[in-house]
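Design review, sub-item: ligand-bound model
Attendees: FS, YL, KQ
YL presented the inputs for the zinc ion complex:
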Amino acid sequence: MSTIKKILTNKCPNCDHGHIYSNKNIYFNFTTNKMHKSCNHCGFKFEKEPGFFFGAMYVSYALNVIEILITVIIGSFFYNTIFHLNILIALITVLALMSSFNLRVSRIIWIYLLKNS
Ligand SMILES: [Zn+2]
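KQ shared the predicted structure:
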């Protein structure tokens, strides 16, 4: 299983069987989706130390920049400029809708980046 697929399916980086979040659906889930302290299958500890997920903020920032670029590029094809009010409205909508997804995926990516440390 590729790493991207494991990240997008919420799998444990150590065993590929357990799930990081209690709810397997990490997409557009606005409920409180609890993160497990450790893997149910192999016992891999997800939060290595207090404040471990502070670094996930940088991953979330990168995801937001990618989403902004994609939205502005698509919008510029429709309006032939990047400075249009509808592009700004679409941008705010996309970022609001993707915020829940970004939070969860950025933490999962952070766990995968530092799984061997
Ligand atoms: Zn595991």
